[in-house]
Specification:
12 helices, elongated, Rossmann fold, 2 domains, alpha/beta, binds 6-O-phosphono-beta-D-fructofuranose, 15 strands
């Protein structure tokens, strides 16, 4: 047992997502009410440790935030203490410094015995130098992308899937009315979890994943078939922002040189829509959901998951564990070495059961491997466009 824990810090790092406040609430209330531990909030992720922005968090502060989107502590996805951009030199670009010592000093000055770090793989990587410097850190896996190694699910993901599914449902009716192809781009970085899950949940016709490079000729053929005489007359494509054609690269929307993870993907949906229109002559539109997927309050499943994770982080801390990240595997909560998850990505396996099920009901993945009953010669004779 960890009798010596008197005060803990909590911070939220990386891109925000629904459920952060629910974790903060569970951490704070469990720590104060079950163990008499004081809690302080560290503002804007590791930035707050660097700049000494730390404030007390009471159980009252943590009340009423379960359903709120964002994070009451603020977040930052540009801040790795080991490689921190202190300024941008106009001639040479970003100037990096290792400010790990500053973070450790802030934690000591405030009498912080352990820090609950709520973040994704980048935040866990940012926590690594602090762990190596002897700070006790317990990680909680957060991201809409669901791509953290060691856990079968992250909080925020199911809410993002819900948002994307609702958007895809809406695109269905307008695609149907106008006999158009609609391409919807969703987030996820290099992982296709949001695209796959929302794509299946919405009954999308084609799902483009980073893990399965697509073939444009095959895509165009599939679309032409859906537009045949007597066919559905419209098509919905969901494209993960990290999807790419077989012979091409991912599309980068912007590069942030001051970020330890500088690449921001985006634009594949528009590109696919233009290519389809050019190849088939069929009216095609694209929508990119962007940060809408990260906004708003968590759905009930994420509130529950966040509560489990928050509670579990304090439970393992009080068992005397150090440098661990809470996880869920096979529906059971546990923990893994925090450094195991740092800086890695959990991608969709190409033979994931949901891909197999989707293929069985005719959902295309742009690779020609789905057996579309549609693509027989008799049916193709009646293609009108
Ligand atoms: O990791 C979460 C995420 O929303 C990704 O899906 C997306 O690629 C990225 O963050 C966007 O980052 P930013 O908020 O910096 O534009």
């Amino acid at each position: 047992m960890a009798e010596h824990i008197k005060r803990i810090g909590v911070l939220t790092g990386g891109g925000d997502c629904p459920g952060l406040n629910a974790v903060i609430r569970a951490v704070t209330k469990t720590a104060i009410w079950q163990h008499g531990i004081e809690v302080v909030g560290i503002e804007d992720g590791f930035q707050g440790l660097i700049e000494d922005r730390v404030r007390p968090l009471s159980a009252r502060d943590a009340s009423g935030i379960l359903t709120r989107g964002g994070t009451i502590l603020g977040s930052n996805n540009r801040c790795n203490p080991k490689r921190y951009c202190v300024r941008v030199d106009p001639a040479t670009g970003p100037v990096w410094e290792n400010v790990t010592g500053q973070c450790v000093d802030t934690a000591r000055r405030h009498g912080i015995d352990a820090i609950i770090v709520i973040g994704g793989d980048g935040t866990m990587a940012s926590a690594a130098p602090l762990v190596e410097a002897g700070v006790n850190i317990i990680g909680v896996p957060k991201t809409i992308d669901n791509d953290i190694v060691g856990t079968e699910i992250t909080f925020g993901f199911l809410t993002a899937v819900n948002t994307a599914t609702e958007a895809l449902d809406k695109l269905h009716s307008t695609a149907d009315s106008h006999h158009r192809v609609m391409v919807c781009e969703v987030m996820g970085r290099n992982a296709g979890w949001i695209a796959l899950t929302a794509g299946v949940a919405s009954g999308s016709d084609i799902i483009l994943l980073p893990e399965i490079p697509f073939d444009l000729d095959h895509l165009a053929e599939n679309i032409r078939f859906r537009m045949r005489k007597g066919g559905p007359g419209f098509a919905i494509i969901v494209a993960a922002e990290g999807a790419r054609p077989r012979e091409g690269q991912q599309i980068v929307d912007r590069v942030d040189p001051t970020s330890p993870d500088p690449i921001r993907l985006g634009g594949i949906g528009r590109w696919v829509a233009d290519e389809i229109a050019a190849r088939t002559g069929i009216e095609t539109r694209s929508s990119a959901l962007g940060h809408i997927q990260r906004g708003g309050g968590p759905i009930p499943a994420d509130r529950i998951l966040a509560t489990h994770f928050g509670y579990h982080s304090i439970k393992i801390l009080m068992e005397g564990k150090r440098g661990r990240m809470v996880v869920r595997q096979g529906n059971v909560f546990g923990d893994v070495d925090l450094l195991f998850a740092a800086g890695k990505q959990r991608l969709v396996p190409p033979h994931h059961p949901l891909i197999e099920a989707a293929r069985a009901i005719g959902t295309g993945f742009g690779d020609g491997k789905t057996r579309e009953p549609a693509l027989d010669s008799e049916a193709m004779d009646s293609v009108v466009v």
